[in-house]
Amino acid sequence: MLLQRSQHAKAVADVYTFAASFLRSYEANQIFQIPVSLFLQELLSYQEGFSKHYADSLDGCGLAQEGRVRESYYSFIRRLTEALHSTHRQELDKKVVPAYEYTQACLLHLLDVDWQPYDLTFITEVNLPTLYLNIAKETVKMRECTYGTEEEENEMKEYEKCMKWFEDCSNGFEKWYDSMKKEDKDEKKAVQMFVARFCDLLDVEVSCDGCDVTLPGRRYRCLQCEDMDLCATCYVGGVKPEGEHTHDHDMVHLVYKCNNCQAFIVGTRIHCNVCEDFDLCFGCHEKGAFPAEHNANHDITKFPLIKLKTSQDSDSMIQSYIHQHVWLLFTILAMSTGDIIHPEQPQGMVDHDYVKLAEHLQSQCMEIATHCLKQVPDDAEDSSKIAQGDQLDMRAIQSKQEEAFAIHTQERIMGLLGAMIPREEKITNMGNKYNFTTKEFIQLLFKIARGETGHEVNTRHLAMGLLGPLLTKCDLEVSDQAVESDSPKDNTADLIGWSSVKYLFSFGADCLEKCGLEWACSVSRILQSLYCSPDWRTVILHHLRTCVQNLTSEPDLPAIFALFVMAGFPEVLTIGSIVQFNHTSMDRKTGVVLKHYPDRYQTLIVEIKTRKRYTIQDKYVDCHSSIPDLLDSNHLSVFVSNVKTIVLELRADKELTPETVWVMSLCLKVLNKTLKSSDHCISEELFDPGFIQCLVYIASKGTEFSQQWLLKDLEVLSLMLFTNEGSSSTYKKGKSLPFSEQLAEALEKHSKASKEQNEASESATSDEDGMASDSDSSSLTFSVSDNETEGKSDVNKVFGDLDEKTKVMFETLHSDLKLPLDVLRVIYDMNNKNPDDVVKAIVENLERSARAKEDIKRLSQKWESIVHAKTPEAALASASSDKIIDTGIHYHPVFKYTNRCLDKASEEEWVENQKLIQTPDNDLEDDIQKTQRSKSAELLKQELEKQGRKSSREYIYKVNMAMSVLYARQVLTSLLAKWPAHGPVINTELLGCKDIQQIPCVLDLLNKSESKSRFQMVVDRVVHHCERESLIPIASTAGQFMEEVTLSSITKESPHDYKEDAAVKEKIQLPGASCLRISFDNKCSLKGSCDSLVFSSTCDLLQNKHEFSMENSSNWASFQIPGDTVYYEFCCTTSKDGKSGWGYKFTVTAGTRDSFETGYAILNKVLSTDLALSLPLKELWEILVYVSTKQTGQQRLKAIQLLLKIIHTQASLPPDSVMDLDLGLLKPLWIMYNNSTKSEVMTGTLVTPVIRALTELFLQVESLAMDRGIVTQYLLAIQDIDEIRKVVGQGIMNVAAIGIMINYPNYATELVTLMKNKKKQS
């Protein structure tokens, strides 16, 4: 065996030696010849499969033979690499290029081995990393750029067709798409292009036809093929998908989106030179469909369609293969060096000399990769910059190839650099060089992340992701040097790392101001990860301490960003966020967000474990945040002081800026986060009466927003509105002119445009010129032409499409104030097409300012009434939405006397198949939370569309105040839930209440905004730490809460018996409900298997679906639907015998957390403790019996439960104690109980929960009456007197009849005889 291996090794060495000798017979530049290609082909044809290493199967042949094989292999490879190093493709004759490419492919095949540490010397000698990247750059598919020549008329036709299709898709994309499959080939291609452009709006997922990866955004699309898209990697590698696509097809880079219709622009692009990052498609521009931040007076540039096509003559598939293969080899080499330097196991350690070589190679790979990143031009997104034809010389072509490779491979390079960074669990020797924390590399990542270069957005996100782990391991001095090269050195602080921390906080503030929430969250995550490092913690705390101390002065954006770092940004789905999600199973999975689609409420996620991609609805995705506690004791005092100071200013009616209110909300957020994360009291300062009163004052306010808003969505709204408004990001900075001068300038432009359109209108033009000159004064004087006043105004002609309210407003201003429509149009454009700003501008600038305000107020009432008269359903919708507005605390009036005597108890309508005391269903609670998230996300989207990118500071103030209110409630809840045993007594003085009855009102407010379990903790602490004498009014008020309950409900029923035309599909909505309870009449029945009644929470009847059919009433069980809306559909057919079922009858009841639940929670807690003995049991008994008599369903069951606890408390008293409970009040309940039990015995139905509860109640009451010896009084009190008389009379008659039959006189016979005599006498 050893001899055979030795002979095999000798043969392999001889082959490699001969091959090297053969190649040496050619000059380096002559090696790319047909004989060499044939030789290499013949050589490789004898290789069996793909060997992992050139020395495979040579174990045991001896060191000498192994060395000979190695040297011969090195000699062979060295000859090939020398030839490729010294030759460039552009220098060769076109006839030689195929041999050159074949030689490259053969060399890559020979180099595709599992390199061992002893090979590193050779790899360094032949400079493989450089060779790999040079080959990759050479094989980049270069593109020629041509400009589209589509006529504007055709573009408009295409635009109108797409808009019509998009409108048709509103009724269902799948239905529309199926209807379009019957069209011809050209129409199919047009349909696919429409889908590709509007994919983000149509909920269509696009995949790369080359590698099948999901494309979250920009991509390359073929203009000739019916449906072909490529990612940047496949595009630059020249991948040719299966099908009709070829390299000579025209491609378009889908990168720009229209800011109005949100579709990818394929055609003429209109770029605004005034707005920041603003583009329109040609159709939206021509139609005048502008977002709020843009108007027709802005300076624009038109860019034609840019088509891309392969510029190389050969359509070589081997070139694409070489490009992909060489990149893989470069990646493997770079990764393998890291495995040698940082092995996973101690036994994986190699010789120190090999580690040094690996460090050198890794450093070389990084230098090459970072050099490529630096070659990305600043205008990389402009596709016209890539390649421009054959007129370039060799150096220019190489430069263009390198630039094209850098542009299209930047994301792959950044991903490779991230993969090269060793994981935490890998072993690192103290003497090893760490190539990732150099000054140059950190500096490059900062430049890319800040957007100072032309790198793509995904590359910037990857750079941001790398900065976190790298800065954690980076030396603080090196980091300071990296940031100080871009910014002046800060000599004010001697603390090492201060420059870096200051730079990061400044970077975060800039992101918050200019880039938006997503980038600010990324910087915040970096700082939070650095805080976990002991080296950085001191520096970050020092900076935070400085920011916190400056909050008392006018707060600025860096200070606000520092607060967000401490409190955490709202949990939004940004690129790189770690999330928990469940796709199709109950198992929770962990993933990373690749892209968020807010318009579709969906997120593209890659699972960390399997690397699979999923598109998940937002309601099934939860952010996984682990924010470290950045608060120290010094910060706590400052935050408490800030809150108290701002609240005092509010109480003094001082005007506060939105920033100040924002600071208050963030201070409260930090405190709330700290309270929730700690298990013990942090500081007694938090329980100071002054601070508690401030919290109650803020928490008692209303948010003036819908109760369906979630706090995190309000935070997102505030951030997006503030950064866009406060930073002037919508417009480029310039000199601000007075309104009159702006109007004059705009009117002048408008008049010139009108003159060019119609030179015959000289009189109208002169009127406008005069108007412009008159408007130079501080107030406006409007002149009116005769034609304008005499003729009827045509608002639609001047303004285009307007909503009804805005149209009526302009008609009213024109007719009543005699304002020309042209002037109104100019003012409308100047104010970003915001009707409210138009009215404000007119009021502020009319000459008769005082009278103008009165006129505008009168006219506003006029056009509001007109609009409501025209659209009564809008007024109805508005009235419905007002019911769910958060109006703050509600102080219930105290009733000194209430008539609680009822003659009859409310009947339970239908059977409820449920537990005696219903427990919350976890699945339902999750569904409710998911529905609330969807509702809140929808409100956020609507509000952002309504406010646009620029909002008033008054509105931002309102949003920030709403956040402060909600956070104040959370902080107050957290404090009360963790009230210390040694803490102050909870009384009216502490809470700032006028009387004790207001304490339950405060608890009621907290119950509406917190979870049930957390509220139970609050009630427990308040009950145990309040003054003993205050329990009586608190319990009385809680009982009053239970009396006031009113639940909204809607009843729907079919005809009985129903007919075939009874089919119906409707929507039921009870605004403000957290869930809806649906219960059925026990007569419900349907005939036939095809008849069905379906309920769902969505209009497509798919989510939370409940279906009922057939006659069996036991199947018609009650159920709950999350949210405030339920859809139902009744389908019926004609049976063969012509008969049908009874039909359906159901009631939809709103499930809300109302004052009833607050009162129940308080009384349930008090009555469950020894404190119940101190309560006015007589009054509570009367209240709860009244509630049990009046209410039905769950409310009645909970009242009966409390009645049982009162009976238990009364029974625990000594037998000689006074009996305070009036058992006679139970009479209406006893009558209902008697009647119900009789009917259930006769029908044989199941015992309902209410009957079971009443049975337990009367058994306990009877036991109590027996113990106290008042059974007779009790029975007389609850029985009906007429019924007793009837029963006694019948008994006397029966006894008398028996006595007469047996001839035995008794009192009964005497009484009967006496009664007969009286009747005769009468």
TrEMBL record:
Domain of life (superkingdom): Eukaryota
Domain spans labelled ZZ-type: 203-259, 253-308
Stretches with biased composition (Basic and acidic residues): 748-758
Comp. bias intervals (Low complexity): 772-786
Residue intervals passing through the bilayer: none
GO molecular-function terms, A-Z: zinc ion binding
CDD domains attached to this UniProt entry: ZZ
Gene3D superfamilies: 3.30.60.90
Ranges for region Disordered: 748-795
UniProt keyword terms in alphabetical order: Metal-binding, Zinc, Zinc-finger
InterPro entries the record matches: Znf_ZZ (IPR000433), Znf_ZZ_sf (IPR043145), ZZEF1 (IPR040099)
Protein name (record): ZZ-type domain-containing protein
